[in-house]
Amino acid sequence: MGILDRFSLQGRTSLVTGGGQGIGRAFALALAEAGAKVAVVDINPATANQVAEEIRALGQEALAIQADVSQRADVERMVETIVQAWGRLDIGVNNAGVRCWAEAETMSEADWDRLMAVNLKAVFLCCQAEGRVMLAQGYGKIINTASMSARIVNRPQKQVAYNTSKAGVVHLTKSLAAEWASRGVRVNCISPGYTWTPLVEQVAHLVPEWLRDIPIGRMAQVSDLQGALIYLASEASDYVTGHDLVVDGGFTLW
Q1: Which pick of 31, 176, 192, 202 has the fewest CB atoms within 10 Å?
Q2: Which domains, ranges and CATH numbers included, belong to the chain?
Q3: Which residues lie below 8 Å from residue 184, measured CB to CB, with a gap of 6+?
Q4: Which of 139, 162, 231, 239 is an active site residue?
Q5: pLDDT for the residue numbered 12
Q6: Across the strands, what pairs with 187?
Q7: pLDDT one-digit tens code per residue, 26-79
């Protein structure tokens, strides 16, 4: 098989959580362009439907699924819906997440619990449900969205809970990779650096400070992350598991 053919996802089925906007939307569109059927999962059904329509406009099959991935029942329903529709699940992209900036001494327990529920517990629940299907198939690719914040302490914003949750995602990824490698399931994660999304527009005053520590000299666009995803989702990465692929413009070099 030629190298470009090994990057093709033709005939594969996939899901993307948090797929209704930002990085998740970019991931869903990239999977579709590479040939995969895509289930767009989001807590907001309107945005999930909108991205699913974009995928159909590309000539690819899509599902829109509303789910709160911090809830086991929703996660199990999500996977069941895909398997009932397409017969299998080949690629699980666990991207849903939330951000919370708060000083450690004043952060509420409720904020901590909410962030951990979405950023870490939900990733485990999704991996578990996806893994059960993929292990039975003997093949599957799971890609979790972590963050360069798993490796560093960001500044000037205070985000102890976020950093901790993303470090947990990286180690969860490695642990599952070790457990499932011999059974055909590869588990990896992508750690984006500062990426321009609508959320960043709300804190645009911080961008100049962030840029001072990015050797490439700009923030990532969501398109900068798509190549990493397709590599990890495709046969080109069949010998890669437990890897944290950092896409940060060099930020963590310092």
Answers
A1: 202
A2: 3-247 (3.40.50.720)
A3: 134, 135, 137, 138, 139, 140
A4: 162
A5: 98
A6: 142
A7: 999 999 999 999 999 999 999 999 999 999 999 999 999 999 999 999 999 999
- Taking residue 230's Cβ as centre, other Cβ atoms within 10 Å add up to 23
Residue 239 CB contacts under 8 Å (≥ 6 apart), including other chains: none
Measure the CA–CA gap between 65 and 87, rounded to whole angstroms.
16
> For this structure, is 162 an active site residue?
yes
Can you tell me the mean pLDDT for 89-103?
A: 96
Length of the chain (residues): 254
* Long-range CB pairs of 198-201, under 8 A, 24+ apart, other chains included: 198/21, 198/22, 199/22, 199/99
- Give tens-digit pLDDT for 69-83: 999 999 999 999 999
Query: What CA–CA distance (Å, rounded) separates 226 from 13?
Result: 17
DSSP string spanning 95-119? -------B-TTT--HHHHHHHHIII
Q: What's the one-letter identity of residue 254?
A: W
Of 216, 201, 209, 223, which is closest to residue 248 (Cα–Cα)? 216
In DSSP notation, 47-114 reads HHHHHHHHHHHTT--EEEEE--TTSHHHHHHHHHHHHHHHS---EEEE-------B-TTT--HHHHHH
Q: Give the per-residue SS3 of 131-174.
A: HHHHHHHCCEEEEEECCHHHCCCCCCCCEHHHHHHHHHHHHHHH
With a threshold of 0.85, does the pTM exceed it?
yes
pLDDT averaged over every residue in the chain: 97
pLDDT-derived band at 1, boundaries 50, 70, 90: confident
Q: Are 188 and 232 in contact (CB under 8 A)?
A: yes
